[in-house]
Amino acid sequence: AGIPGYGQPDVYYPTSYLGRWKATKTIVVSDNPYLNANGLLPISLNFEMRFISVDGDSKEEAENAVGGKVVADRAFNEQSYYEAFRNAVSSNGRGPPALRSAVWVPTNPNVLTSTYDDGTSQEIKVTKRAATLE
Predict the structure, then answer these.
(1) Long-range contacts from 77-81, C-beta under 8 angstroms, 24+ separation
(2) How many alpha carbons fall within 13 Å on the CB side of residue 40?
(3) 6-23, pLDDT tens digit by residue?
(4) Burial class (CB in 10 A: 0-12, 13-18, 19+), 24
(5) Taken in order 70, 72, 75, 80, is the CA torsion positive or negative?
(6) Does residue 42 have a cis peptide bond before it, meaning omega lies within 30 degrees of 0?
(7) CA of residue 106 relative to chain centroid, distance
(8) Residues 6+ apart with CB under 8 A from 97
(9) Phi, then psi, of 45 in degrees rounded to 5
(10) Considering only CA atoms, which of 87, 113, 86 is closest in space to residue 101?
(11) Which residues have CB under 8 Å from 67's CB, separation 6+?
(12) Which of 3, 67, 103, 107 counts the most CB atoms within 10 A of its CB?
């Protein structure tokens, strides 16, 4: 993300985020056809999230590092969220296709590529990011 106007290369979290967390996402409004067709809104999804060190440090090393960089593991988080979403909307057997893989690397944090069992794929690209640094 060294291109002018594209902001910092990633979103960094405090080192205390390092590891796995239980998360809940509540969706109240959506244009997703699986949610709207099944009348599932509002819906709360429980899933796991993982945060990792950019430098591959252990939790102790990252906590002791000055300016240690911790990021969201987007591939893990997407797989975890999508599985929770798919399980919630597939109760009638008509859910979205299973997620075959999610590919993301911390050295190129702006691209996440997902491939599904029905042969389709999705590429999510971050094109601009902003942050307020204190």
Answers:
(1) 77/49, 77/50, 78/102, 78/104, 78/112, 78/114, 80/47, 80/48, 80/49, 80/50, 81/25, 81/45, 81/47
(2) 23
(3) 556 788 899 899 999 999
(4) exposed
(5) positive
(6) yes
(7) 12
(8) 116, 117, 118, 120
(9) -115, 130
(10) 113
(11) none
(12) 103
Confidence of residue 58 (pLDDT cuts 50, 70, 90): low
Q: Using CA atoms, how far apart are residues 56 and 61, in angstroms rounded to an integer?
A: 9
